[in-house]
Amino acid sequence: MDSYRLKMLRKEQGLTQGNMASILEVARTTYANYEQGTREPDNKTLNKLVDYFNVSADYLLGRDVPKWATPEDLVDLEEILKNNVHMAYGGEDLTEDDKRRVQEVLKVIFWDKLKKKGSNE
User: How far apart, in whole angstroms, are the C-alpha atoms of residue 41 and residue 6?
Assistant: First the structure.
């Protein structure tokens, strides 16, 4: 579990650890351990997290970066995401959830393009 991402998602929703514990039907200390990285959720709880935050299990588990990625690739990706933070549609700013979802799509496209480029060399 990527404890940083879990904490970030919770804070984006304006929730406390106690709120999340109630949503997941676990003790607050259990949830706190997920965010501290000292305990992993079981599959049922992981599925609840995926559904609640509308993210993939790979994202929560920190598996969205290919094993072949270099540190330079990660810097390039961060630059792309950083330069696309002021997103709007139809003249209205996107919600934080919408921005995060767009960034997830950008990540997938980035890794696909980089992989294809590498296979062409």
Answer: 11
